[in-house]
Amino acid sequence: MSRFNVVTTVPDFERRVRAAAGGALTGTVQAIPSIPFPTGPEEILSRQTGEPLEVLLLGPGIPVDKAIKLASVFDLMYPEISVILVHETTEKVAVEAMRSGVRDLLSPDSEIDTIRVMLERASLSAASRRRGLALPNEPVRESGRVIAVMSPKGGVGKTTVSTNLAIGLGKLAPMSVVLVDFDVQFGDVASGLQLNPEHTLADAVQGAAANDSMVLKAYLTVHPAGIYVLAAPLNPVESENITGEQVGHVLGQLAAEFSYVVVDSSPGLGEHVLATLEHSSDVVWVCGMDVPSIKGLRAGLGVLHEIGLVPPGRHVVLNFADRFSGLRVQDVEETIGVPVDVVVPRSRNVPLSTNRGVPLLQDNVKDGAAKGIRKLVARFDPKVLAKPQTKIHRRVEIS
Ligand SMILES: Nc1ncnc2c1ncn2[C@@H]1O[C@H](COP(=O)(O)OP(=O)(O)OP(=O)(O)O)[C@@H](O)[C@H]1O
Ligand SMILES: [Mg+2]
């Protein structure tokens, strides 16, 4: 059971927080009157009944400067309490909030699902800070895995695989997964997940966000399944100035904050793809079950091998697998020169899910394609990997 307090003048926001704290999250919410504005933490904490406070939401409807001042006092005196500022995100507000110790920013219009994800994340981080305070020698957290989903050819299922992989990993590590759309010109992750991002990669690679992860996090979009998304620029023209260096930098920032960074990419081996490879721990190669796609992958793997750009983890997904394609899995393996790790059969549920904007793994679909993608997710599950005799590359067949 978690304890949330909210200081706001907006009854509808308070109602949404109460709804968000119910259900799976099991938290209790206490509303603190915002007039007169509480002068310090004591005023808030003295009204506290029941469990100790974990998450304090400041806003909307209260003066942002007073909220930021109060947040900085909380940060100094009660760093184990997570403060969320509820205000429209501008760069100025994000920078000031970050400096004052605010842990997250939330838009006042956020839906119940988004508020729930934020509350969950804030209580997790409050819990880990409480542990950190009790154990000052706790080791520094390692950086997360950066998983690039790639293919030399287009239309083979990269976006399908990356969105489903991110949703699947989100079940293993709620609020610790970010899906990044590096198909900078024609990215369709946000629309494919029915999201309307307020900010995109174009904002994330420049200004304050590039220097501070708090600002960067404010530019992510929350998906109701409990993952974060960094959307591609809305306008292809905005993507022209994004450099490989910026792509690498943002990946480093995200890996420091999240356990899993899943990257969807554009086809080919362009500047952004190469920069992504340089910063990845793993690559998921997606290959269609057709000769051009298979030959493309062979050529791509060859080039990367020659230039020495081979991240440690390799996972080959054979998508659109079909027993009547005239090819066998072994033929594909012989051509590309490495084993196929996961087979995802052609399934009519996949285009249906793409068109509905609800990934197979979010919808708990049980067909062969979903089964294949779950197998891919398991390759990153620490519990599965810890089991003895887990072979990294096993023989697979089309079911
Ligand atoms: N296993 C499958 N069975 C049936 N349809 C599939 C399968 N995998 C993907 N598709 C469909 O193929 C289309 C292309 O998939 P997707 O957008 O994931 O490919 P992509 O590699 O990201 O393409 P691009 O290179 O253009 O970014 C989508 O309509 C998707 O629903
Ligand atoms: Mg795509």
Describe, in short, the structure shown.
The chain has helices spanning 11-21, 41-45, 64-77, 91-100, 112-134, 158-172, 189-192, 201-204, 207-211, 213-218, 244-257, 271-278, 291-307, 329-336, 349-356, 368-378, 382-386; strands at 2-7, 27-32, 55-58, 82-86, 104-106, 145-150, 177-182, 221-223, 227-230, 260-265, 282-288, 313-321, 342-345.
Q: Taking Cα atoms only, what radius of gyration do you get, to the nearest Å?
A: 23 Å
Supply the number of structural domains. Answer: 2
Helical proportion, percent range:
40-55%
State the end-to-end CA separation.
Answer: 44 Å
Low-pLDDT stretches are 135-139
DSSP helical segment count = 17
CATH topology of the largest domain: Rossmann fold
> Which second-level CATH architecture of the largest domain applies?
3-Layer(aba) Sandwich
**SSE string, helices as H and strands as E:** EHEHEHEHEHEHEHHHHEEHEHEHEHEHHH
Strand order of the largest sheet: 8-9-7-10-6-11-12-13
The coarse silhouette is elongated
Mean pLDDT: 90
Specify the biggest β-sheet: 8 strands, mixed
Q: What is the CATH level 1 assignment of the largest domain?
A: Alpha Beta
